[in-house]
């Protein structure tokens, strides 16, 4: 095989320059600004600033509202990631075993991927509306005094349900691709060695899906932390009482609505450190258990 050589030493850098510029403009520069503003006390218009050291971080950590948002974010992210992955895996296994009408079944499950989070939130708002929402009427008819406008648990239930529905289709695509990549010879050997379907799936199929599952776990945690902003903003706006505000949404509330630039920047830095820590745990601890 002939190895490709660049005649000009600057050509490779010119080819990657657009991508590096995008990263610098939309990630490195905002991150640097957030770190800088987290140590400053600024007026809402940004005309004056004063260095306050770690005061912004102390106020954030001591805030009961921030603690509530942190707990809700962890619980919300864990439930969304687990439920969306579990449902997608179940649907992928069922779709992989269908002989007739397989294409229609796949299309029906994947079309939700085209729905934006904000649109999914609007659909959820109509479904759970107290006046015209069919799901609201159904839950109240079962004896559940369902009221997401006043009850934190009910509001959390709505945003978790819609967020899971939005993400199932993405996970379904990856899990189905992972199932179809398992060699037929391996499946036939497993079928001969173990006739119990559940045991065969648990001991053969699931370990072979581990690389796909790890990748899906990473993107689901990222989705739960950041991409559910549109769902929360359109459905609850963090209500009632800030009980459904994730850490990302609280940054938006304090920074853009409350004009607390220093406090919101400190929250951004804490969130960045938290996400980096989770990423390290995922790739240092969980990936060691994955066999490619």
UniProtKB/TrEMBL annotation:
<keyword id="KW-0997">Cell inner membrane</keyword>
<comment type="similarity">
    <text>Belongs to the binding-protein-dependent transport system permease family.</text>
</comment>
<comment type="subunit">
    <text>The complex is composed of two ATP-binding proteins (UgpC), two transmembrane proteins (UgpA and UgpE) and a solute-binding protein (UgpB).</text>
</comment>
<feature type="transmembrane region" description="Helical">
    <location>
        <begin position="266"/>
        <end position="286"/>
    </location>
</feature>
<dbReference type="InterPro" id="IPR035906">
    <property type="entry name" value="MetI-like_sf"/>
</dbReference>
<keyword id="KW-1003">Cell membrane</keyword>
<keyword id="KW-0472">Membrane</keyword>
<keyword id="KW-0813">Transport</keyword>
<protein>
    <recommendedName>
        <fullName>sn-glycerol-3-phosphate transport system permease protein UgpA</fullName>
    </recommendedName>
</protein>
<dbReference type="GO" id="GO:0055085">
    <property type="term" value="P:transmembrane transport"/>
</dbReference>
<feature type="transmembrane region" description="Helical">
    <location>
        <begin position="201"/>
        <end position="226"/>
    </location>
</feature>
<dbReference type="GO" id="GO:0005886">
    <property type="term" value="C:plasma membrane"/>
</dbReference>
<feature type="transmembrane region" description="Helical">
    <location>
        <begin position="70"/>
        <end position="93"/>
    </location>
</feature>
<keyword id="KW-0812">Transmembrane</keyword>
<feature type="transmembrane region" description="Helical">
    <location>
        <begin position="12"/>
        <end position="32"/>
    </location>
</feature>
<dbReference type="InterPro" id="IPR000515">
    <property type="entry name" value="MetI-like"/>
</dbReference>
<comment type="function">
    <text>Part of the ABC transporter complex UgpBAEC involved in sn-glycerol-3-phosphate (G3P) import. Probably responsible for the translocation of the substrate across the membrane.</text>
</comment>
<keyword id="KW-1133">Transmembrane helix</keyword>
<dbReference type="Pfam" id="PF00528">
    <property type="entry name" value="BPD_transp_1"/>
</dbReference>
<feature type="transmembrane region" description="Helical">
    <location>
        <begin position="105"/>
        <end position="128"/>
    </location>
</feature>
<dbReference type="InterPro" id="IPR050809">
    <property type="entry name" value="UgpAE/MalFG_permease"/>
</dbReference>
<feature type="domain" description="ABC transmembrane type-1">
    <location>
        <begin position="70"/>
        <end position="282"/>
    </location>
</feature>
<feature type="transmembrane region" description="Helical">
    <location>
        <begin position="155"/>
        <end position="177"/>
    </location>
</feature>
């Amino acid at each position: 095989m002939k190895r490709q050589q660049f005649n000009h030493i600057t050509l490779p850098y010119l080819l990657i320059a657009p991508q590096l510029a995008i990263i610098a403009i939309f990630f490195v520069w905002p991150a640097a600004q957030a770190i800088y503003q987290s140590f400053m006390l600024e007026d809402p218009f940004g005309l004056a600033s004063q260095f306050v050291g770690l005061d912004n971080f102390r106020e954030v950590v001591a805030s009961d509202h921030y603690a509530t948002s942190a707990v809700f974010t962890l619980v919300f992210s864990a439930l969304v990631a687990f439920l969306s992955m579990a449902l997608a895996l179940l649907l992928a296994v069922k779709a992989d075993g269908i002989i007739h009408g397989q294409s229609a079944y796949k299309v029906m499950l994947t079309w939700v991927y085209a729905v934006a989070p904000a649109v999914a939130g609007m659909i959820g708002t109509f479904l759970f509306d107290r006046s015209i929402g069919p799901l609201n009427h159904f839950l109240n008819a079962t004896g559940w005094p369902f009221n997401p406008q006043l009850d934190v648990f009910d509001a959390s239930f709505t945003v978790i349900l819609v967020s899971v529905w939005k993400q199932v289709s993405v996970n379904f695509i990856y899990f189905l691709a992972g199932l179809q990549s398992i060699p037929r010879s391996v499946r036939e050997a497993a079928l001969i060695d173990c006739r119990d379907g559940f045991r065969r799936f648990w001991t053969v199929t699931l370990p072979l899906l581990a690389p796909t599952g790890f990748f899906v776990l990473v993107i689901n945690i990222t989705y739960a932390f950041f991409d559910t902003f549109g769902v929360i903003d359109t459905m609850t706006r963090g209500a009632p009482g800030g009980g459904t505000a994730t850490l990302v949404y609280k940054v938006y509330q304090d920074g853009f609505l409350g004009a607390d630039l220093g406090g919101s920047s400190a929250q951004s830095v804490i969130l960045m450190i938290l996400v980096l820590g989770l990423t390290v745990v995922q790739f240092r601890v969980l990936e060691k258990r994955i066999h490619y």
